[in-house]
Amino acid sequence: MAGKQNQKVKPRLLKGMQDSWPELARARREMLSEIEAVCRNFGFLPLDTPIMEAREALLGPEPSAEQLASIFHFENQDKEQVGLRYDLTVPLSRLFCQNFQDIPRPFRRYQTGSVFRWDKPEPGRFREFQQFDIDTVGSASLAADAEILAVVDAIFRRLKVRNYVIRFSNRKILNALGEFCGADERQGRDIYRVIDKLDKFDRERIRQELGPGLKDESGAEIPGLGLDVDQISRIDAFLDLPNSGDASESLQAARALFTGNSLGNEGLDEIEELIGMLEAYGLRNSSWIFDLHLARGLGYYTGPVFEVTLTDLPSYGSVFGGGRYDDLVERFLGEGQGVPAVGASVGVDRLLAALTELGRIEQRRATSEVLVTVMDKARMADYIAITSELRNAGIPAEMFLGGGNLQKQLKYADRLGIPFAVIAGSDEFEKAELSIKDLELGRRIAEQVEDREEWKEQKQQFTISRSELVGTISERLQRGPG
């Protein structure tokens, strides 16, 4: 028994999981704080829901083996079948329907949280990841769709990202394409899936997937949809429509193709109305494109759909996406009892990685702007007073709580990226003086200056009177290093 008590547990991270170190966690929180500020400015409400839901809420009463294999699920101690949420939309639908009589409508909310999927772990792909959603439930008005797009536009402007494009279309247009080429409902869904690959493959590859199928570069068989030559020709006619960004030209050409198709014209009418609202919101024409080919892979979309791409980082693909989903709550209310809804979602860490690469987010480990070093433990009360004075002035500061000499303390500050250090020993206290070391300037000099004499001339450290502490640090923080 004693041997078992002394056994060590090997520290290990589960496959597909990740730790968020301080620099990543801090940058993520700062980015989300900016995003949430935009949502509040538009009047959206914050919401949190449990990460665990009844399995039938997540997958329906009779989930397939494929569905079950895609989520974390188990039987709890109450003998209930439960699962970890795989997105934030299904919990929102459950909450809305559970409180159907009491919830204000439309219900406009934003939410951030972890979601879980039993995917094969890959670099940059984890089984737990952060997601941010914004949705309006209970409004069939296209003004709700336009507002979501306006929020997304405002978010990127708030994050100081200029080169982005919001591409949008309408699922009704693709449904009309299915009717136009004589495809049944299942084939129609498969057509969306193939068209969604237009940004990855050339048109000939698309034709083969629509028709007999093909072998890819590795020799693997890619089954086709089995559409005939006439059906593929009609899809080709749709894909040949002008789609260069001139919305009026695309709308006119699509109306000519869908003459007599009520569903197609309904979708085009909605796009025209949506564009008018985006212009009323003041969205720059360069920030949005009506893209006839945009499919969005999820089958539950029923109206306008959109994606956001960063023109400076095309390899990232879509960094924000969403659309209208009027039928998703049928799982809880019953068939034919849909509630109109529209929303948008973003993979938080994917967007954070993109913003970091663009230089819009700084991943710095420290939250402190100043490290107060401890040179004389007998003067601990004085060091506490210095640290408290900085904090009370709104300057994030910390006092070094480890052991070691000044060099070790400055190395600690350097590793965390703290910009300034306050240095004071017995002599400084007797003279009512403090030394300030500009560590950020030191880091910059180390990178840029090679000559030792020039390096020595740089004033990284200077002395001030004790009473000048807050004013000096505040002024230095405002103007930056040096």
Characterize the structure shown.
The protein is an alpha+beta fold. It folds into two domains: 22-357, BirA Bifunctional Protein, domain 2 (2-Layer Sandwich); 370-479, Rossmann fold (3-Layer(aba) Sandwich). Helix content is 42%, strand content 19%. It is built from 20 helices and 18 strands. The strands form four sheets. It has an eight-stranded mixed beta sheet. A five-stranded mixed beta sheet has the order 15-14-16-17-18. The protein has a three-stranded antiparallel beta sheet with strand order 2-4-3. Helix 6 crosses helix 12, helix 7 (171-180) packs across helix 8 (185-195) and helix 7 runs antiparallel to helix 12 (262-281).
Features:
single chain, 482 residues, alpha+beta, BirA Bifunctional Protein, domain 2, Rossmann fold, 2 domains, 8-stranded mixed beta sheet
CATH architecture level-2 label of the largest domain:
2-Layer Sandwich
- Sheet-strand content, in percent, reads 15-25%
Helix content: 40-55%
Please tell me the overall pLDDT: 91
Distance between the termini: 62 Å
Radius of gyration: 29 Å
Structural class category: alpha+beta
Q: Please, what is the oligomeric state?
A: single chain
Low-confidence residue ranges: none
By CATH reckoning, the class of the largest domain would read Alpha Beta
| Overall geometric form | elongated
Spatial sequence of strands, sheet with the most strands: 1-5-6-13-12-11-7-10
- Per the CATH scheme, the topology name of the largest domain is BirA Bifunctional Protein, domain 2
Looking at this structure, what is the CATH superfamily of the largest domain? Bira Bifunctional Protein, Domain 2
Instruction: Give the total of beta strands.
Output: 18
Number of domains: 2
